Amino acid sequence: MPVPSQQTLLWFVVVLLLLWLLTRRRERAAIGRQRRMPLTEAELGRVVFEVARSADLEAFRHLYVSGGEARDLLGDAASAYLGGRGKRWLEDEFLEISVRVAPPVQYEGVHVGEDGVTVLRVRSLAAGAYELPVGRALQVGRIWRLVHPVGDWSQLRQVGAPSGAARA
Fold this sequence. Notes:
Distance between the termini: 84 Å
Structural class: alpha+beta
Strand order of the largest sheet: 1-2-3-4
Shape: elongated
Number of strands: 4
Radius of gyration: 22 Å
Number of helices: 6
Order of helices and strands: HHHHHHEEEE
Largest sheet: 4 strands, antiparallel
């Protein structure tokens, strides 16, 4: 059997590298689309904070109840609930939360009330410690999901602002 030339070996290496790059990109895309499934209130808080800090709107959307979860949780009202969720409210909600957790804000914890109202406890040098509502969360089976957004942020405009900004 004749020994392959250097050029043939070089083409073989190039083809192998291209195959490796193509499969590597597909793996990343599959991992990026994986839906987070927080099992505790504390994990939900950390995930909401992390997703808001990373500016990952798609991951934030995945934290909300969808499809089968909505049917399990809401029954006949699920279709109306899912139909009323346009993309605009999600973007607005995400922007309000993301702005308030931008660096150098630090995560300190989360509290989920009996009614599901979920509040992140965070701290910044400028504003000190403050609580940031992120909506209403409920447990769907063993997984915690956001069900309703804060929605009306008009009363919460100063949350996360430095204390001097309230007087301005």
